[in-house]
Every structure is written in structure tokens, then in C-alpha cells.
Amino acid sequence: MNKDLFCVIMAGGAGTRFWPVSRSSFPKQFIDILGVGKSLLQITFERFARIVPQENIFIVTSSEYKELTLKQLPQMKEENVLLEPARRNTAPCIAYANFRIQQINPNAKIVVAPSDHLILNDSIFIDTINEGFGFVAENDCLLTLGIKPTRPDTGYGYIQFDSSIQFDGFQNLSGVKAFTEKPNYDLAKFFVESGEFYWNSGIFIWSLQSIQQSFKEFLPDVYSLFNDNADKFATPDEAETIAKIYPVCENISIDYGVMEKAKNVVVLGANFGWSDLGTWNSLYENLDKDCDNNVVDGENILLYDTKNSIVNAPSDKLVVAMGLDGYIVVDTKDALLICSKSDEQKVRTIVNDIKTKTGDRFI
Amino acid sequence: MNKDLFCVIMAGGAGTRFWPVSRSSFPKQFIDILGVGKSLLQITFERFARIVPQENIFIVTSSEYKELTLKQLPQMKEENVLLEPARRNTAPCIAYANFRIQQINPNAKIVVAPSDHLILNDSIFIDTINEGFGFVAENDCLLTLGIKPTRPDTGYGYIQFDSSIQFDGFQNLSGVKAFTEKPNYDLAKFFVESGEFYWNSGIFIWSLQSIQQSFKEFLPDVYSLFNDNADKFATPDEAETIAKIYPVCENISIDYGVMEKAKNVVVLGANFGWSDLGTWNSLYENLDKDCDNNVVDGENILLYDTKNSIVNAPSDKLVVAMGLDGYIVVDTKDALLICSKSDEQKVRTIVNDIKTKTGDRFI
Predict the structure, then answer these.
(1) Hey, are the CB atoms on B331 and A335 less than 8 Å from each other?
(2) What pTM, to 2 d.p., does this model score?
(3) What is the DSSP string of B55-119?
């Protein structure tokens, strides 16, 4: 494998949308949410290990998840787990990885990806990433992967592509007109029908040189904080340096801080079957269903007159459901959620309510 | 208290209709199903201890529930717990108690009652039982308590009373025309509208002499088995005797074996607020509801947009339910039931299905 290829997996999220299975001490990326025997992080790691050398894969996560990460990925060297002492969104996370990689290989080409998404077709995914690597090796561009939308989903960001900007030999690559955060339903419908929009996957490919240049230009304060300490990375002083600069870093996403401002952004349209698995509903959409359209994860789940539902329980728990249509049932040792699928977006709000009413113990 | 008054509490049931809270190793009568801090058996015992001397209260139960019974009722003498080595329905159970009591006080007046019913008004109940004791002390009759029906319930037995047979000084006492087992809905409706029917409560009052005479007449085989060993009761040989005769006893209910055949049956109409608590629905009907008509038993239950439902969970479990209308949700350590209220009569069938599919471990 090409030793210039690097991967940064962002695994710092503390998502509550998969509550009660995800908890702040055990968020979604560490869970076997697909019921396949591996966590999303493990699946993501293994997928990238087929594209870049394993020693070039870095995971950026919160320091509280260090043990969990190393436990789930015993094949990783501890030094490849970059620990954030505070949560500062994706831009500082990427900056940290950039400065570490710069000390190792200034000629690096990097793919940056979330740790908790679903990719259905591995081989198309690998081809797509390699196509992106090929492009950024030759072009000073920031490449983002766009997913052809299949429905007017209001939970995703959208990228309007500019098909007047084309690149020889890269058929699915276009320029970018605009990024739009989660639109309302009518707007999302318009986007999808226009045929000019992709979903924003949050997967980026660029050369180290290009992304460093963009940070310098669009996030100069963040860049300086790191650059003033550039020689400390990949040394025993790194942790101390991060502890000092990270908390004073701006809290800002790479999309807002860089991608929406840079002129050299391109989007590679991809079609590998993708979901950000942001909600139980999106999980439902992506998993195999039984003949009554139920998605079942658990070893002792008995359904009677139940359809269009998702039921998830520990393997040693017996669940008997009768007369449910369109419900989410998620049982864990200390918490049970039963919720109509149409109410699912309220789970986030409810988690806050739970915090108010019962404190932190169930969160 | 009158030392001639005795009470026999039947506590051998292995009911599965309150699954998953009730289990064969921990049936309904031992559960705090009302959420008041006491099991139905404890409540029943305490209620009768206000009517008859405590040392005259006997509990007949399966030998497998001996420890559970003594643990829940530490005030009982062990010898007052009569243990059945096999399940033989109510007639043999009552015969056993009769022969024990005969050795203690041949002049006994006895009230026989299930251990797992709901009585809402204790003082009316006590007055009713005392009225019954007063009557059977003077009359060679088998008295059963009838409950004025409030709805055409198809889960109950019905007693057609005969108002042409009246008794001086016992205004609510009548003769009996017929017993009817669980009728269909139309018949139940007809019964209720006719004003001539009571629900059969399964609570009986009689003198020892009258009930022994009836056994002799209508269940001579059962009577002989016990009577041939009459001198063994209340002696160290009792357990051995029971082990020998109980398994060969006919498996028959007191209703079918005696009450439907005897000519000296009377019914005392009562109005103390009664339910046999045979199902989660009947429990729902009888418990306090919140402003959305939900019955909640648990310390950490959060309901959103949920109504007409019953939610029952251990105190340390958080339950979040959203968008439920008319459901039963019962969670326990190893099993969860979610069931629409209209499907509840199927729980019994399901318990059999569970047995087929997962063996005994959840039953």
C-alpha cells in the first residue's frame, strides 16, 4: 500500500440519539448497532485498513474514550489514538491530526471520516476513496464525498454541485456551488427533485499541504495555535501541548470553518449505500427486515401481530411484543425506550428531560 | 374474637396471566401487584386476621411455595401452612383444610377465600363475612359470596340467584338457581341486564359440619380418602398421609364438585368492590390513573403523549414511553411484555408459546 496515504477517523462524538443503547460513557461508534458482532468504529477501521497502511490510521477521540478505543482495536498502536482533552468540533480535531501527520510524512494524502456511519458497499467505497486520493495527489483541492439523495431527508446537509466544472478522467467529480445545512421538508424535496444536490457525507480527502494551506487562510487562529508548537507533535511533549492549546481553540466545524469558504472545494459523487445512522429510523431503513417489516436485534424476541417496528434488546432478555405498528423498542439493562417511529426526532429532547428529572445516571 | 371462626386461604395458584411479573416460581399471590408495598397474599392474610383469630388462619399452597409463604408471613406458625404435594384444584384443597380443622375444633365455622383477589372496601368486606358466619352458625347451608356485576365481563362465572328464597334478618341472602361458567359476551350482557345474576367470587362460608356432609354426599371418594386417615391430621403423620392420598385424589373444583350439586347453597350479595385481578386489564380498571388515564408502577417512568396505558417496571429501571395509547408495558429483569390492551387475553397462549420456543427459563 502507498505509504503516503493516511486516514483520520473522528470518533469523539457523544451522541444521544441512540439512547438508551448509546450513553455518554459508551456512545454510538463503540456499539454493535448493526448487530453484526462489531462496533461501527471497528467496521470503519477495518474498512480503511484495506485502503491505507494500518500504521497510517489515526483515531481522534475524547480522552475519556481512550481505553474503550484501544480495547476495541487492540491492533492499533496507542500513539495512533489522538486524545482530545476537550470537545471542540471537527476543525480542531482535523488540525490536530494534520500536525501529527506533518511530522511523519509532509507528503501525506489524507482521508478524514466519521467513525459511526454505515457504508453498504465496501468495494465501491474503496474504489471511490482511491479515486479521490488519485485526484488530490495531482490537484490542490479539498474533496468532499457527496451522496446521491434517494429521499428528501431533512436530517442531512446538502451540497449543490456545479456540473459546469468538470475534471478530465474524473467523471463523477464536480465543482461546488453551495453547502446547505439541514433544510426543511419542502426545500429538501426541491433539492432532490432538481437533481443538482448531494447529501453531505462528512468524508473528506485532501493532501496535507492543501488542508494546511486552507487552515492558514480561513482559520488562522486555530492554525497558529498548532503551528507555533509544530515541533512538539509526535514527540513526548505532544500531550502537554495539546492540553494547553486545545481548550483555547475555537469550537468550529470543518464545514463551516473551511469547506464553505474555500474556493478549491470539489465534490465526488458516490453511490456506495450510505447512512449517517443518525437515528433509530435511519438504522431501520438500512437493516434487513422480516416478513412483517420488522427489524429485530436480540436472541429472544417474540413478535405477534407486530409490524414496521424495530426491536432491540440484550441477548439474555426475552421481549414479547403484540399489536405494535411502527414503534421503536430498545431495551437495555437499566433503561427502556418505547417510541412511535414518527416521534423519534424527539428522543434528543427527551434525553435532556431525563437529565433534568433523574440526573446523569441514565445518560 | 370467636375461637370457632376459621379461615382457609387458597394460595396454590401458578397463574401465568400476569406474566412476566408472575412466574411459576413466583406467582401472582406473592407479588405486590398493586404497588402498595405488600403482596396480595399479605393483604389477604391481614384482612382475615381482623375477622378470625390469627392461629385459626390456614394457608393451603403448593409445597414449592412453602418458603415464600413463610417469608412473606413471618407471623404465621409453620404448621398453619398446609402443603399440597400435587395440584388437585380446589375441592381436595378444601378437604385437606377441613380434616385439619376437624381435629382442632369440630364446631368450626369456616371462610374459604382465594389469596389473590382485590377487595376495595375492607370494612364492608368484614361486615359481609361476619354476616355470613352468623348465618351458617344457625343454618346448615353452603354460603357463597355473589358480587353485583357492573359490566358484562366474560372472564367471570355467574350465579343466578333465586329471590323467592329469603331468610329473616339476612336481607341480601337468596337461594341459588344456577351456576354458569364464563359466558360469551351476549349471554353476559343478558345476565347483567336481567338483574338476576351475581358474579361468582369464589369466597365461601360454611360450618365444618355442613361442608363435610356435602363432601360425603357429592365427592364420596375424596371424602373417604381423607376420612380413612382422619386421625392422622394435626399429628406428625399428617405430611406422610397427605403425600400418600393427595396424588390419587380427584382433580376437581369445589364449584363443580359440590356447589353446583348441593341443594343447600345460598348466595350472599355483596358490594365491597371486588376483582379477581385475573388480567392486567382488570388491574388497570382497579388502580388510580393519572390525568392521561395511565396506571404507572415504577419510580423512573417518563411518559410522553401516552394515554390509557399501564406501565410497570422495577424501581431502578428507567422507562421512557412516547406515543402509546392503550398498551400494557411490563418490564422485569429478564423479560419485557408490550401488548395492546385489547390483545391481553392472548397472554396466556403466548406464555405457552414462549415455553415452546425458549424452554422454561422465562416462565
Answers:
(1) no
(2) 0.80
(3) GGEEEEEEGGGHHHHHHH-TTS-GGGEEEESS---HHHHHHHHHHHHHHH-TT-EEEEEESS-EE
Q: What is the CA radius of gyration of chain B?
A: 21
Q: Return mean pLDDT, chain B.
A: 93
Q: What is the pLDDT of residue A287?
A: 85
DSSP of B13-30: ----TTTTTSBTTB-GGG
The beta strand positions in A39-124, using DSSP E, are 57-62, 81-84, 109-114, 118-119
The span from the CA of A69 to the CA of A60, in Å, is 10
Q: How far apart are CA A289 and CA A286, in angstroms?
A: 9
What is the chain B residue with the closest CA to A358?
B300
Length of chain A: 363
In chain B, the residue whose alpha carbon lies closest to the alpha carbon of A346 is B322
CB distance B350–A317 less than 8 Å? no
Of B322, B327, B336, the CB nearest to A331: B336
A356: contact with B, CB 8 A cutoff: no
Q: What is the mean pLDDT of residues A112-121?
A: 93
A323 touches chain B (CB under 8 A): yes
10-residue mean pLDDT profile of chain B (363 residues): values are 96 82 88 88 97 98 96 97 94 98 98 94 95 97 95 91 91 94 92 96 97 98 97 96 95 95 96 87 86 93 95 94 95 93 81 82 80
Nearest Cα residue in chain B from A339: B322
Pick from B3, B228, B6: nearest CA to B98: B6
Predicted confidence (pLDDT) per residue in B102-129, tens digit: 999 999 999 999 999 999 899 999 999 9
Q: Is A357 on the interface with B (CB under 8 A)?
A: yes
Residue pair A162/A263 in contact by the 8 Å Cβ criterion: no
Set of cell numbers at residue B112: 374459604
pLDDT at B34: 83
pLDDT of the residue at B225: 96
Q: What is the pLDDT of residue A347?
A: 80
User: Up-side HSE of residue B162: CA atoms within 13 Å toward CB?
Assistant: 12
SS3 A267: strand
A206: closest CA among A282, A119, A107? A107
CB-defined contacts A:B, below 8 A? 107
* Cβ under 8 Å to A: B residues 74-133: none
Residue tagged 374474637 (cell numbers)? B1
